[in-house]
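The material for today's practical consists of a large collection of protein records. Read left to right, the backbone structure tokens trace the chain's path through space. An example says more than a description, so a record of this kind follows:
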Amino acid sequence: MTTPSAQPSFTPDSLLALDSVLTEEERATAASVRGMLADVVRPHVARWYLDGTLPARDLAKTFGDLGLLGMHLEGYGCAGTSATMYGVACRELEAADGGVRSLVSVQGSLAMYPIHRYGSEEQKQEWLPRMAAGEAIGCFGLTEPDVGSDPSSMRTRARRDRSDWVLDGGKMWITNAPVADVAVIWARTDEGVRGFVVPTDSKGFSVSEVTGKLSLRASLTGEIVLDGVRLPESAVLPGVSGLKGPLSCLTEARFGIIWGATGALRDSLEQALAYAATRVQFEKPIAGFQLTQAKFADAAAAYGKAVLLALHLGRVKDGAYPGVRITPEMISVGKLDNVRTALAVCRTMRTILGGSGITADYSPMRHLSNLETVLTYEGTSEVHQLVIGKALTGLNAFA
């Protein structure tokens, strides 16, 4: 008996003509990033994941050469692209691995962004060109060992000592910290929460790498200890005070997550489709079974909706609609729904792969494991539900 062959008419993107809603430049960016990742990341990422490591410095230089670091920022060596273009790049990066996307997101949206928006001209000139080129790596110090969703309870303190500042405290779960050259540290002061640009070779600044992770293993995570770190007045970010500073950075970074989650979803769907087309059971490819096709149909629909939500938010952020501005509540909707949607789809695609799906040879389980972290960091699902709930009801349910 001849085994029927699979001859698909559509891809996850072509099914809803999703490429047609992107500009020619956005499609070119996606192709460029995808090609680079096929050369320098995809052949190695499974091994990095298994080993719990990432060649962050080498990748940062490669990403810098391609203009990906801080690409949505203007000047100082940054590419100055649109927010949507940055989102398209994040989709391709997370399709390769969430840890790789996190390297780029933290560098551009959490380390470079606050310096670019709130920093002095001296701080911008000192750090941004090198960070854009991938010659210096940054990290973002907000979360603490005992303080996560409630940053107003942070314990890290900065006190004045004559013309200097002295920082004491600790930060936890800090992506890029083990290899960072500079850290944007948020601390309580008598004047409220302030941001500090801290070279990581400062006396009293130390980092311990977090090991034993079961998620985002192809990412470098650290615990920062600040033991009497003395900084000059020029280290303070002069353009912001209060929690507005760190929260605005998180809003910026969450936008990249909204797009990145669609990349993990798409890659898992594509891998499951390819596997199901060649895996033969009961004398035909498992892609020909009704239950398998039902899973694919649901996944493709979920992917299309997630991309269109990300694209809409990108267009709003880019000012495409007069009088409409992006809000943190919009970002919360996108982060909440796209991440949990991607997580559910990746889990279902893993089931199509059967036993093979629990190996590093295939991406869905790696993606779903990574997404468990993405579901938590930069605002848990519960936090985003409460943000949206407050917007809809006018009542604060946080306390």
